[in-house]
Amino acid sequence: MENQTQNALERFVAKTRELFAKERDPEKRWTALSPILAELLADAEVIEASKAWPDCVPADGRAENLLFYEDPDYGFAVNGLTKGTARQGARARIHDHAHIYTLYGVLDGRERIEKYERLDDRSKPGYAKIRKSVDQMVGPGEIDLVRPYEVHTEVTVGERTVAVIIRSQKGGEFNQGRYVPERDEYYESLGPRQTPCEMLPKKAKPQEQNNNRVSL
After folding, report:
1. What's 13's domain CATH number?
2. Is 7 exposed, middle or buried (0-12, 13-18, 19+ CB in 10 A)?
3. Is the pTM of this model over 0.85?
4. Domain span at residue 120?
C-alpha cells in the first residue's frame, strides 16, 4: 500500500528505485520510467510549488538546472528547468547529453522540441552534419525520452515554461556535444550547472505546528 505520508517527490524516488532494482536493461528501464514521471507531473502540489521555483539563468557559457535529488545508489538525478519571460523566443544550443539517458517532462507552459539526426560518420574532429527530423509543440504532462547522444534542442514560444528532468547521471560533470548546423561544426563543453533547490516546501512536523499555535 502506498505511503500517504510521502510527498510526490518521495513517491517518485521510491517507485524509481524499485524499478531500477528490478530492471537492469537501460532501454527498458527508461521506457518504463515515463508513467512514473507522468504521476509526478500531474501532482497538484508540485505544479503549484513550481510557480515559485527560481528562473534558471545561463552563465559563463553554461545552462543552469535546479537539483532536487541525486540518488546515492543508482545515480539518477531529478532536475528542474525554468525559463522565464526574459528568455522568450530563445533557443537552447543544439546539443546531446553524451552517454546518459534523460526523461524531459513538461510541467507547466508550452515550448517546441526539435530533434536532429546526425548524417556524418563522426570520424572528422570538429565536424558534424545534422538534419532536423522532429519539430513539435509540447505542453504540460508531455514527456520526451532523450537517449544517449541524441541531438536536440528546446525553443521557448512566448510563455514561462517549467520542466522536470530525470537524468541517469547528474549533469555538469562531463562534456556534452554541441552542434552548429550553419557551419557543420561540432564541439564539446560541460553540461548545466547544478543549483540545489527544494522541489516542494518543507512541511512543519506536528510538534512544530503545535509550538506555532497562537493562544486566543
Report:
1. 2.60.120.10
2. middle
3. yes
4. 8-198
- Would you say residue 160 lies in a domain? yes
Dump pLDDT digits (tens) for 133-147: 999 999 999 999 999
In a domain, 66, yes or no: yes
- Rounded CA-CA distance 79/71 in Å is 12
End-to-end CA distance of the chain: 40
Check: CB of residue 136 under 8 Å from CB of residue 82. Answer: no
Place of cell 530563445: 90
Residue 3 is assigned to a structural domain of this protein: no
The amino acid occupying position 91 is: R
Angle at 54 between CA 48 and CA 57, to 5 degrees: 140
Q: In Å, what is the CA distance from 50 to each residue of 23, 47, 80, 83?
A: 31, 5, 9, 12
Domains in the chain, number: 1
Render pLDDT for 27-80 as a digit per residue (tens, 0 to 9): 999 999 999 999 999 999 999 999 999 999 988 889 999 999 999 999 999 999
The answer for residues whose C-beta is within 8 angstroms of residue 95's C-beta and 6 or more apart is: 151, 152, 153, 176, 177, 178, 179
